[in-house]
Amino acid sequence: MDHRPPVPALYGVMAEFEDPTSLVNAARRTYDEGYRQFDAYSPFPIHETFDAMHLEDRRVPLLVLGGGIAGMLTGLGLQAWVSAVAYPLNIAGRPYLSWPMFIPVTFELTILFAAFAAVLGMFGLNGFPMPYHPVFNVERFAAHASQDRFFLAIEAIDPKFDHARTRAFLKDLGATEVNDVAE
């Protein structure tokens, strides 16, 4: 009977780089090589990585637009219903639906709903709350990712992923260290 502990599932392979230029070049070459399920980690934003990784997700702006439109319609609809249907008051012969007086509330609800859509959309699309991520299983990542090193992780779910070839590919990119990431 074999008493060895089970081998943990593999999340992917992670490479460590010393400078942001190396990370951007590695991300560009990784995309050009055909990998699509990979991510870059750095202690500060590097805007060139988004271009190198071909990240063009436009869902959040559409969610914000939808939230803003919903807020505008809610503000206008609520005020129109209250002014003309639920509690109509004829003050100095003014019309019940006087749209100029609806502008401040409509504007505020548009901004409020758009802000809520942005926050909730980012939480939903980023998978938050995520109290744990497998990349923290790599000791060097936990110690250096927010300090002074740059990391590129290729996930095992990528169709092109082959453990040995992916490790060799990351080493050829000039990585100072390549580690397996356990699930």
What do these coordinates show?
The chain is of the alpha+beta class. The chain folds into two domains: 98 residues, no CATH class; 68 residues, no CATH class. The protein has six helices and four strands. Strands 2-3-1-4 form a four-stranded antiparallel sheet, with helices on one face. Helix 3 runs antiparallel to helix 4.
Principal-axes shape call: elongated
**Total number of beta strands:** 4
Tell me the structural class.
alpha+beta
The assembly state of the depicted protein chains is single chain
Biggest sheet statistics: 4 strands, antiparallel
Keywords:
single chain; 183 residues; alpha+beta; 2 domains; 6 helices; elongated
Compose a concise summary of this entry:
With 183 residues, this protein is an alpha+beta fold.
Topology of helices and strands:
Blueprint: E1 10-17, H1 20-33, E2 38-41, H2 47-52, H3 59-86, H4 103-126, H5 139-144, E3 150-155, H6 163-172, E4 177-182
Antiparallel strand pairs: 1-3, 1-4, 2-3
